[in-house]
Structure formats: C-alpha cells, structure tokens
C-alpha cells in the first residue's frame, strides 16, 4: 500500500533564524508530498515537492518587514495587543503587548517577544524559564492593532507553572460556595472532554467502587474499548456509503472521536501529541522529517 | 447495547439570562449522565444527574459579581483586554477592550460585550449584525488584566464578513511577490488540515487531470476511503492491544483522524459541527437535549 498525500504548507518555524542584517531566511516548503510505506508505524517517507524543485529558501526582505511594522496601528504608547496561541490546541497561552521592536524581533527570531510595560523593555517569553514560544506564524487583525503569535510552547507559559495564564473561571467563582475554588484552565470542547476522561481514569483508580460510568467501563476493559472504536468507525463509514444525512455523520464522528480519546488516555497520549504528528507530517520537508525520525 | 457516560460539566450558556436586579440564574448541570440506545444515529437519551437530584439552578450573587469586577486590574483608562474565542474550534474571533460595565454585562447576559474606545460606549458584538458571541465561560488571567470570553458565535465575527478578524499572515505577506496575497484565516493544526482537504476537493472537481494526491484519490473513491478509515481504526486499536509505544498510538490516531476528516469533507461536515455535537452531548440536561432533538 502506498499513501501519497499532497498538502499545502502548514506554517512551520525555522529552528535558527537570526541572520545577517537585512536578510532573514526561513524554510518554505510550499508544497509537500508524502509517501507512507505500510510497515505500520515504522516508516513514513516524506519528501518536499517545492515549486522550484530545489531546496528553496525564502529570504525575508527587511524593507517588507518595515512595511508591515509601519502598517500596524500602534497606540499612543506605541503598543498593540499581542496574544500567544498554541498552534496545535488553540489554547490562548498568554497576552501581552508588543511595540515595533518586539514585533520585529518576533518575526525575525520566531520566539514570541513582548514589550514589558512595567520594566520598559523587550522581553522574550522563555528568556528566563527557557519555555520559549516558537512562533510558526504571526497574524494581524482587520484593524491592524491586534496581533496573534501562533506558536508552540516549549513548556508551561504562565509564571505560576500553569500551562496557560487563564485558569480562573468567573462562573466557577460565582457558583462556588467557598473562596478556594479549584482552578480550571480555559479549555475548548475537545480538551474539556480530554480532561473529563482523565478525571474518570483517576476515579477508576482511586474509587474502584464508585459510580460506574461508560468511560470508566471502557478504561477498565480494553477488549470492549477496542470493539467500540471499531464499531464506531464502521458506523461512520456507513453514513457515507448509505448516504445518510449530515447530522448522522457528525454524530458518528463524535462517537468515534470520544472512544478514540479514551484509548489515547489509556496509552497516555494527548490530543496535542496527535496534532503535533499531523502538523509535522504536513509541514516538514522530507529531509527534516527523516532526520527527526533518526533522532528518535 | 447501552452507552452510559458520566461527564463533568462542560460550561454551557443559558439562552435567556437577564434577570431581576441582584440575582441572575443560569443552568448548572454539574454532572450529566448519558444513555445512548443503539438505533444508530436515531436516539440519544440523555438525562442530567445533578447533585440535588432536581432541576437545580444557580443564582448568581450580585455581591460576588462585584467582587470579581473589583478583582480585575483595570488600567488607567478603566479597561482590560478582552479576547473572544470560539469554544469549539479555539479560534480567536476578535479582541477588544472591556471596562467594568462591559464585563458585568457579559457575565450577566452571556453575550460578549466590549467597551468601544472610539465611541466611548458599551457595545455588544452582534447588536447590529445579529452575530452575537454566546458566552459559555469567562476567564481571567493570572495578572487579572486580561479576559477570555469563551463562546459560540452566531455567525462571522469580523465586520468584513470573515469568520474571525485575523486573516493577514505576516509571513504570507513577506513571502509574497505580489501585494495582493490571498487572505488566510489564522488556523490551528486541525483546521489547517481541514482547509487543505477542502482545497483538494475543489482541485479534484476543477482540475480532474491535475496532479493526483492521496487526498484526491480518497475523495474520488468512497470504497477506498471507507476501507482506509476501517483499517486505520484497526491499527489504532492494535497499538493498545499489542502494547505498542506511545508514538505508534499518536501516529495511528493521526492517520485515523486524517482519513475521517476526508470522509467528513465528502459529507460536507465540519470538525466544528462534530465538536458541537460532543459539547452539547456532555453539557446539556436530558430535557434540553430531548427538546433540541424534537425541533430538528
């Protein structure tokens, strides 16, 4: 079996980007073609198919960088809001402010860099903690006064050690009878479900006689879990082959996703790790991918 | 077959929340237990299992809301950054500023509300376009000067009609030889892949003789696609049963996800729709879920 997929570039960061003066290079695999051989999980052979057919590198034009910096609507203090977001999970990691130098440094270095209003100086997230945010892309909003640093964090972003800086839910506080309500990271749907499955695993281990739940049953019975994943995949396929309505497909995909996520939990694999695999598969050049496999 | 799942609350918005004076109610299905009967895609029977055993409603205490508003570190102009994020996809929809009144109105009304610095007045996103952002949760950051409105948009958020306000990639601009580079929404990994699959579908339809790719092959051959989804599900299960390493599980899940997403594309179903199904399943009360099914 051969799998050959051609994908558009998902943005990817360059490992070493500071370069001389006016000219900054980074890799630009515009188009990527992948061949997978079928020794399951053993070999993925990917090669880059670039427009020029060679190992093209794009040189960032300093004049163009200046034009972009000029296009930002800096406020009266010379600042714009800069939001760092995890490229795989979508989590908002932190929010700070950028001035012209901070944005330029981020674009060039691909490390999320902000302007500290309290210290009146630039700071690159991670310069102390080493938990850098490796920037894959930078987005400006329609008004050009708000910036997203879309990147991959090396570790927890918050100075408290939390994964992100957003762990205080207003409604949790309002609903809590006590002051010391448990902190809960802001999570979107997939990651809330992932957290719930993890909680069930802990309960299954610590409260074996507690209330049974479907998730716990699956966690405790690998044969059952395997048969459910297989069944849900079959049902999803059937919605296609039987031309069932969209709602059925969405519902069956939801079932498949949930049951697969229970399996991931048992294997101690996060959705983020899965997404990282997908991103790397579809953004790296073949050489990079091959080298990264040699290292692991 | 019976599927009974017990999940912790995923935050959910209340449809009508403005209420008298000091007391605001919203639904609080603390614990939810779901039973699915197996007439595939036909009946999902869910019931809420709340701590009190009854249809508990939580009344927001005005004094507590005030305490939260007091705890925010408003800047010299009385503002804090407010970021609206899609609860299902994680997309950052827009960023504005909130003052005390805007945050209070958001907490109470569950519609994302900001303070317009240009008009010096409150504005609720959607009051003109009707594309409200229905807020499921509100998060404060560690420094208490940055806010996330985690919600579900009724439609495109940007005044330009774009799904979000972030559609200008700095690196796209830098790499482009022309000025008029195609706009590209900021998308995290899963949604970049989804967009790429959509692109392949358009190519398959408009350029039937164009370069073949695995995605195009799958899009054009439902039998092949079905067999691949089944195969990848089997391989994922095998990593569990054979106790293969974590990396294999992540890789097989990535395969399953990708192939399932091609199937979703053929059925014109977005990942966001699937996540919405998951969220509703695990956050609604049984009655709400039953009623919503009757309507559709």
From TrEMBL, chains A, B:
InterPro entries (alphabetical): HisE, PRib-ATP_PPHydrolase-like, PRib_AMP_CycHydrolase_dom, PRib_AMP_CycHydrolase_sf
Keyword ATP-binding among record annotations: yes
Pathway per the UniProt entry: Amino-acid biosynthesis; L-histidine biosynthesis; L-histidine from 5-phospho-alpha-D-ribose 1-diphosphate: step 2/9; Amino-acid biosynthesis; L-histidine biosynthesis; L-histidine from 5-phospho-alpha-D-ribose 1-diphosphate: step 3/9
Lineage: superkingdom: Eukaryota
Pfam family of the protein (one): PRA-PH
One annotated GO molecular function: phosphoribosyl-AMP cyclohydrolase activity
Biological process, per Gene Ontology: L-histidine biosynthetic process
Record's keyword terms, sorted: Amino-acid biosynthesis, ATP-binding, Histidine biosynthesis, Hydrolase, Multifunctional enzyme, Nucleotide-binding
Catalytic reaction equation(s): 1-(5-phospho-beta-D-ribosyl)-ATP + H2O = 1-(5-phospho-beta-D-ribosyl)-5'-AMP + diphosphate + H(+); 1-(5-phospho-beta-D-ribosyl)-5'-AMP + H2O = 1-(5-phospho-beta-D-ribosyl)-5-[(5-phospho-beta-D-ribosylamino)methylideneamino]imidazole-4-carboxamide
Stretches assigned to the Phosphoribosyl-AMP cyclohydrolase domain: 94-167
Protein name: Histidine biosynthesis bifunctional protein hisIE
